[in-house]
Amino acid sequence: MATAGHAHSDSFQYQPALPIPNGKLCMWLFLSTEIMFFAALIGTYIVIRFGAPVWPFSHEVHLSEPIGAFNTFVLICSSVSVVLALEASRANRAGAAKGWIATTLALGVLFLGVKAYEYNAKFGHGIYPALPRSRMYEKPDLYFASAVRQRIQALRAEINAKGAENLTEQDQQRLQLLDEIAADPALGPDPTRASLTALALRIMPLGTAPGEEESHHAGLNDEHPWLKLPIVVPGGNMWASTYFTLTGFHALHVLGGLVVFALLLFMRLDAGKANFIENIGLYWHFVDIVWIFLFPLLYLF
């Protein structure tokens, strides 16, 4: 017959909570909602992308695969540095932990800087989502020709507003170019589909000749950036909407992580802060994984 003490030692001990810190539990719950959020965005993009009748090539919308690959490398390096910060904090090496957090912050800022450079290249060529439209048109039609005429008239009015006596040689050259573009058959009273297509390709060439590598050929907008004429990119407006939505939300998440890393630089990152660094590290790894999905979807397919 077992004694009372022996019976008490054999009894089960009730654990009232999960054997993980509350902070980590909250982070995992938060990340579960973020997973559903990005899964919905990425799933919607896949349906739109592979269901679209036409989709622009990367060079047609000034999307550079090498730049995207470099940014992926930068973000992976930042995940490594935050892990090193965690290990240094657990070893009570506060100075080393702070150094690795600063490295992570710098890499994250570099990632956003590269993304801003990419955005600027697209904005400069009129590639952005806007209502009722950006400078992109889906096909070379009468609406496209009308937009080109309106842009030429606006540029002419802007130059002529200076007065004939104040026009510089550069202004005279610009007026000559505008007159030459306005004489294009596509902007005449009875344009043909062929002339409209030729004008669109003259403003911004698309595609490549047989045997050529994919690249963006220079058109009027590249040779004369001040023109900012409307362009034709089949599927371009839908591409811009999905691209800026996905990368924009991801950039906001990166920015949120950088704010926390910046605040950490004002703390002593000894062993007592290891759990906090681990939690922000989990968030940062999630941001990294999301980009690893976005990079091939947006840049390679």
Provide an overview of this structure.
The chain has 301 residues and is mainly α. The protein has ten helices and two strands. The protein has a two-stranded parallel sheet. α3 runs antiparallel to α10, α5 packs antiparallel against α6 (169-182) and α9 (236-264) runs antiparallel to α10. The longest helix has 31 residues, at 94-124. The radius of gyration is 28 Å and the shape is elongated.
Tell me the radius of gyration: 28 Å
Total number of beta strands: 2
Mean pLDDT: 88
Low-confidence runs (pLDDT<50, min 5 residues)?
208-215
Order of helices and strands: HHHHEHHHHEHH
Oligomer: single chain
Determine the fraction of residues in helical runs and give it as a percent range. Answer: 55-70%
Question: What's the shape?
Answer: elongated
Structural class, by secondary structure, is mainly alpha
Approximate strand percentage:
under 5%
Give the number of helices.
10
Brief digest:
With 301 residues, the protein is mainly alpha-helical. The protein is built from 10 helices and 2 strands; from the N terminus they run H-H-H-H-E-H-H-H-H-E-H-H.
List the helices and strands and how they pair.
Elements: H1 4-9, H2 22-51, H3 65-90, H4 94-124, E1 136-137, H5 142-160, H6 169-182, H7 193-203, H8 220-223, E2 231-232, H9 236-264, H10 274-300
Parallel strand pairs: 1-2
